[in-house]
Amino acid sequence: MKYDVIGDIHGCYDEMIALIEKLGYSLASGFPVHPENRTLVFLGDLTDRGPKSLEVVEFVGRAVKEGAVRYVPGNHCNKLYRFFKGNPVKLQHGLETTAAEYRNLPKQKQKEIRDLFMRLYEEAPLYEILHNGELVVAHAGIKAEDIGKKPVGKIKQFVLYGDITGETLPDGRPVRRDWAAHYKGEPWVVYGHTPVKCPRMVHHTINIDTGCVFGNKLTAFRFPELTTESVPSSLPYDESRFRMEP
Q1: What is the pLDDT of residues 51-80, one digit of tens each?
Q2: How many CB atoms are closer than 10 A to CB 183?
Q3: How far is Cα 45 from Cα 76, in angstroms, rounded to an integer?
Q4: What pLDDT is recorded for position 244?
């Protein structure tokens, strides 16, 4: 099996569809099908900030249910899940846009979306090991020594939020260590979470969150080819959102 891993979508539904088609998938059946038997993998952070978060949820949720694609959650997915559960979460950092979309729906449609997403999240692995252990997909990354371990405690925190120090930047974002610079594992780790202007390949890791929702582009990593494909964003460019890792 060959894979195409798509980075953080954040509600950029139109760009997601454009990238899927650029990768050679047909959507004629309603689900992505590739003539060369490739499989799409979504890297988490489907929602928040962008204009069509719930359309992304519907597309990915139904495709996963059909067995047509794979998905691992990100930190924004975790927060939306807690919102749908009724837990106290702050409507900020993009969740307010998804919540507004949700509240504008008829009650029956709200229930459909909520049930679809909660099932998607609850049944998803926190990270995936694919291609006979040669490929690992984790939203914010994973240490080599933790691959294959149960994602609880610090491993779960790392997979969802990265190697955070506990400190925050002036704008409130967490300070993260550059774990990829020290990665010595053999499996390729594909991750996102921290926006970069171009895919960042270090050792056997690649960050493919190229900040589509911040006006840059949406990127996919093709495995085992080790190549990338991107489509441009339709949103305004925000230079302040891009910084060197960590």
Answers
A1: 999 999 999 999 999 999 999 999 999 999
A2: 17
A3: 5
A4: 58
For tokens 């454009």, the residue is 18
Q: Report the C-alpha gap between 180 and 206 in whole angstroms.
A: 8
pLDDT tens-digit readout, 180-220: 999 999 999 999 999 999 999 999 999 999 999 999 999 99
Residues 6+ apart with CB under 8 A from 108: none
Whole-number CA gyration radius for the chain:
17
Residue 23 burial by Cβ neighbours in a 10 Å radius (0-12, 13-18, 19+): middle
Distance (Å, whole) CA 212 – CA 197: 10
Q: What's the token pair of residue 165?
A: 């120090």
Cβ partners under 8 Å of residue 238, min gap 6: 214, 215
Name the β-bridge partners of 230.
219
Per-residue pLDDT averaged across 226-235, rounded? 98
